[in-house]
Every structure is written in C-alpha cells, then in structure tokens.
Amino acid sequence: MTDKHLEPFDAVVLMSFGGPEKDADVLPFLQNVTAGRGIPDERLVEVGEHYYGFGGRSPINDQNRALLAALEQEMAERGLRTPIVWGNRNWEPYLTDAARALAQDSGSARLLAIDTSAYSSYSSCRQYREDFAGTVRALADEGLSVEFDKIRQYYNHPGFAQAELACVREGLDQLEQLTGGLDAQRQRILYVTHSIPEAMETASQKRTAGYEAQHRQLIDWVTGELGERAVLESELVFCSRSGAPHVPWSEPDVNDRMEELSEQGVTGVVLVPMGFVSDHMEVKFDLDTEARETAQRLGMDFVRAGTVGVRPQFVAGLVDLLEERAAQVRGDDVDAPAVTAEGPLVPGSGACAIDCCLGAVERPTHPTWAV
C-alpha cells in the first residue's frame, strides 16, 4: 500500500470537551467549564458530586483515547500517514498545547479537526469553532501560525447513522430478551439527547434544519431502516438540563416522560442516547443512574442502548469525512453522502457560516465557511 497524506493538512486533531481524571481535578475542571459565569466554588462542589460518585474520573477521557487509537488504526489501514492528536477545551490535553506541539518545529501547522458532537448548535459546533479561533490567536502571540478546518457535522453521514442503527437494533434485542417479546402497546423507544436552551435551538435553525429537527430526521431514517423490527413507537426526549429554572430548555425530560408513559400503561422502555457519541457522564449518570432508578421505582422494564463509541462504521465514517474535507479543500470533485432530507452540511450549505448557531455573545470563529 502506498503511503499518502491528507493534503493539504499537516495533522488531524480530535477535539473534545475534556473531563477530570481524579477527585482533585473535579473543582478546577468545573472552574474551567464555568469560567466567567460567577458561580461560587461551593456550588461547583455540589455539581461535582456526579464526578465524585465515579471516583472523580470522567469516562470521556478513556473513551477519547480509545477513539484516537481506533482512528489511528483506520487511517493506517488506508495508508494515511497524517498524524492525529487529541485536544480538549476544558482539561488536559488542552487544544492549544496540542496545536503548539504540532507547529513549534516549523512555525506553522494546518490542522483538520474532528469534534465529538454530531449535531448543529452553539454548544455542539460553534463553540468548538470559537475554541479553534482562540487557539489561533494565542499561538499567533507566540509567533506560531496555526490554521484550522473541520469535518462537517455528521449526524446524517452514513457511518454515524449506520452505527446508530446498530445501537437501536441491539437495544431492541435486549428488551425482547428481557421481556419475552416486543409489545407495541406497552413498550417505547426513547431517543435521548442533551437539553439545550430554547434560544440556542432557535439559533441552530438559522442556517440548518435545527438541533432538534436533525435528531428527528435521523430517528425517522432509523425507523425506516428497522423494517419489521419497527414495532414500537418512538420519540425524542432530553436530559442534563442546567441553568436558571426560569430559562426555557428543550423538553420533555426523560424522567418526566417515563412518569407520564407509566401512567399511560407503558411498562418497558429502550433509552437510546442518540445525542452522545460515547458513554460519558451524561450517559453514565443521567441515564444509567437516574433514569434507571426512575424505571425501577415505576416498575418499568429498562434497557439503555449503546452509543456509537468506536464501532467500525462510525470510525470508518469519520475517516471518510476527513478524506472528504481534504478533497474539498484541494478542489477535487467530492461525493458527500447523507441519509436525511437536510443533506450534507458541507461548505455552501449554510452550516458553519459566520452567523450559524450564534451564541449569546458573538465571538470570532475558525473556520467560517461561505454560505
């Protein structure tokens, strides 16, 4: 196999949120996450109980290490010799440190990023582009020239979609084994994603179908692909709401909806964490702990389906997306597949434009694609 590179890029960066590794990391990690919001340390210690209950160690870091290794292997099997590194927003290894190491020998680096969120919103896309811009500025002050590009948001790329479909099929198999059969009258599929403020949802609709609509489009595709296994009604629910109680966020909460369904005679649920690429804290605490406890209290049969993690379809799909974006930058003809009606969120689609998924305060972003 002939070695090749993702021209014109010097390296790939796997970009993530970050998380603490031990009890002593929890408070400084949360201080990073909430910087500038004026939240007292006492309140952060209360919030940190989720992490302390797991020994202060977020599962996201080990999952990113596993994904990094899987991506390295997939790239090597394709003969791609472009290096890939990992950088975080809120904890080590920090994005700026990772980019500095790549640029320090030659004085510059052109980087292609993968972020670990599939959908369009401020938190799941634009904020990462703000991080890239912040790193570009910080390293320019050190005399280093760094440029970022990114793969498109990939909720409807076939690799992510097929991996999600496999998660749903496995979850249905588990519910069937648990209960002896699927019952359309008494069981439901609940697709779970992170709740976001209504204002963030509205901003996501300016240049894309919108955060919630993207989930619903993918749910519709999965339902169609299930064929004869599509016997249970399904719906989108939310978890991990935070912020002031008077600020409206996405609803219904997964626990509230389970309460309502129980009152309607539903006795079993499959929770599919469609909004999360791996089993990080929102999944391990909000679903595996809180939602499971809700199901036990209600006497409901409960299955939590898997996440895409390092499933081969997902990993191969991410490398497909790296090759797709590199080809686009080179000016090659590119097939950009998508399984939903919105189509691929490539440059020119409106996604990642300068006004796409704006936050409460407008900050510089990098890259900014033309509409």
TrEMBL record:
Catalytic activity: Fe-coproporphyrin III + 2 H(+) = coproporphyrin III + Fe(2+)
Biological or metabolic pathway of the protein: Porphyrin-containing compound metabolism; protoheme biosynthesis
Location, primary (coarse class): cytoplasm
Single GO cellular component term: cytoplasm
Entry keyword annotation includes GTP-binding: no
GO molecular function: ferrochelatase activity; metal ion binding
EC main group: lyase
Intracellular or extracellular location(s): Cytoplasm
Record keywords, A-Z: Cytoplasm, Heme biosynthesis, Iron, Lyase, Metal-binding, Porphyrin biosynthesis
UniProt cross-references to Pfam families, sorted A to Z: Ferrochelatase
EC code(s) of this entry: 4.99.1.9
Protein residues bound to Fe(2+): H194, E282
Sequence intervals crossing the membrane: none
Biological process terms in GO annotation: heme biosynthetic process
InterPro entries, A to Z: Ferrochelatase, Ferrochelatase_C, Ferrochelatase_N
Binding residues annotated for Fe-coproporphyrin III, in chain numbering: S58, Y128
Family to which this protein belongs: Belongs to the ferrochelatase family.
Task performed by this protein: Involved in coproporphyrin-dependent heme b biosynthesis. Catalyzes the insertion of ferrous iron into coproporphyrin III to form Fe-coproporphyrin III.
Protein known as: Coproporphyrin III ferrochelatase
Organism name: Brevibacterium yomogidense
Encoding gene, per UniProt annotation: cpfC
